[in-house]
Specification:
CATH superfamily of the largest domain: Gcn5-related N-acetyltransferase (GNAT)
Oligomer: single chain
CATH class of the largest domain: Alpha Beta
Number of domains: 3
Number of helices: 12
Helix content: 25-40%
Shape: globular
CATH architecture of the largest domain: 3-Layer(aba) Sandwich
Length: 446
């Protein structure tokens, strides 16, 4: 997806300032360094010293050029406001390819900065309005934003991205698992000094082949392994001489390792993988986040991890709820089928679902109210989208939800608490497949 085709703007605002985006920023004479200097200044003055060239080197380092991803407001030759919007896609798990699960386009929004002297003039609103309009025209299904301020709710961002914060320490290995910290393991950890393209490609293939959930397109290991504080560890079987069965990108901490990304082959049990890392690096603990839909990790870790708790990882705006739900349900159904096949058993029956879900009252005209007809039985799956005002008659049980209730309900388990008992009764068949897996692995370095 090329952003250069649809978000190049040069607009005069009522205040006399100019809103620029895409290639228009370069045409107006602004450099990438100008953007970096501005957001460094605003964030350092507002919070603590920031150096975005170090935080996001692929966007803001000296050799990078991120202008096509930005919206800025200029006062002559000075930048007075900036906004970063990056278009990406989610790839479905390899197992769901046969289920017809297509890529899901999404956007990440961040680095919202307005000069202190220009606040209260509606500059952030002007940039966000234009960015959201561009997303809709580009077919973006959803957008994510890490900011926690309530003002983002006005644009349509609702709390709804939930990850699980996990910590494993040596003391968690008890009983039979204690031997994993003492006996010889069938796998070994290696830290390559200069990983070549062939190794990076092999690790990307491992990640996609074994993902129980989606992975990000245009976010391969070569682009994620750019944070200068990060290190890469590769895990091989046969005590280090065999095939690659895992990897992690991590940062050392005072307590142990912060695993920012990792993948484990299906043949390796997660406790064995974790024990190998603890032993190789001689640390006391491992910390990481995992999506709430990663059933394999959840099953293995909930009974013995030191910490395993929900974590609010940002806000989400669903521009196309039906598209997001279809992507997620196809992947979930494929995972159910794959679980039955891997267990050498009959494919488990998919919980039946017959529901008309109507989502109304979105905060913005760019987010259309939708009517979704869902049907799932032991064999078939279908989802039909209709405009709310033009939905055909149906005998399906119908549940109506406001957008502000529907988004956290679909995207986070905690959102179910906002429903009435009657609404919960309608939603429970769909709740088996939720929450919607839109978690975006951090850090977003590219």
């Amino acid at each position: 997806m090329s952003v250069s085709t649809y978000h190049n703007h040069s607009l005069r605002l009522p205040s006399g300032l100019t809103l620029l985006s895409g290639t228009a920023i370069e045409t107006a004479g602004f450099t990438n360094a100008d953007i970096v200097d501005f957001i460094d200044y605003v964030f350092s003055k507002e919070y603590r010293p920031h150096n975005f060239a170090t935080i996001f080197p692929s966007l803001y380092a000296d050799e990078a050029d991120s202008r096509r991803h930005h919206y800025i407001v200029a006062d002559g030759t000075k930048i007075v406001a900036a906004l970063l919007v990056m278009y990406k896609s989610l790839l479905p798990p390899a197992a769901s390819d046969k289920a017809g699960c297509a890529r899901l386009p999404f956007a990440t929004v961040g680095n919202v900065a307005v000069h202190p002297r220009n606040r209260g003039q509606g500059l952030m609103r002007a940039m966000m309005n234009l960015a959201i309009e561009d997303m809709r025209k580009a077919g973006i299904a959803f957008a994510v934003l890490g900011g926690q301020r309530q003002r983002y709710g006005w644009f349509g961002f609702e709390p709804g991205l939930t990850a699980l914060s996990c910590e494993i320490i040596r003391a968690n290995f008890t009983g039979e698992q204690r031997r994993l910290l003492k006996d010889e393991l069938s796998i070994a950890v290696d830290e390559p000094i200069a990983p070549d393209a062939e190794l990076i490609s092999a690790l990307d293939e491992l990640r996609h082949a074994n993902a129980s959930r989606h992975v990000r397109e245009d976010s391969g290991l070569d682009s994620r392994y750019t944070n200068r504080k990060c290190r890469l560890a590769v895990v091989r079987k046969d005590s280090g001489d065999g095939d690659i069965v895992g990897y992690t990108i991590f940062e050392p901490t005072s307590q142990g390792l912060n695993l920012q990304d990792f993948a484990i082959a299906a043949e390796i049990e997660p406790p064995v993988f974790m024990a190998a890392l603890l032993r190789h690096f001689n640390v006391q603990s491992l910390q990481f986040f995992c999506p709430s839909s990663d059933l394999r990790l959840i099953r293995d870790l909930t009974t013995w991890a030191e910490k395993f708790e929900p974590h609010d990882s940002g806000k989400v705006m669903l521009l196309d709820i039906g598209c997001c739900l279809d992507f997620h349900l196809r992947a979930q159904i494929a995972a159910i089928d794959a679980a039955g096949a891997s267990a050498a058993q009959a494919v488990p029956a998919r919980p039946p679902l017959n529901l008309r879900l109507i989502v109304k009252n979105p905060p913005r005209p760019e987010i259309a109210s939708q009517c979704l007809d869902l049907r799932i039985d032991g064999v078939n799956y279908s989802l039909e989208k209709h405009p709310v005002d033009a939905a055909p008659p149906t005998d399906l049980p119908t549940l109506e939800l406001d957008y502000a209730v529907a988004v956290p309900t679909l995207c986070a388990s905690s959102g179910l608490a906002a429903l009435t008992p009657e609404q919960k009764n309608f939603l429970w068949p769909l709740a088996y497949y939720l929450p919607l897996d839109l978690y975006i692995p951090r850090p977003d370095r590219n």
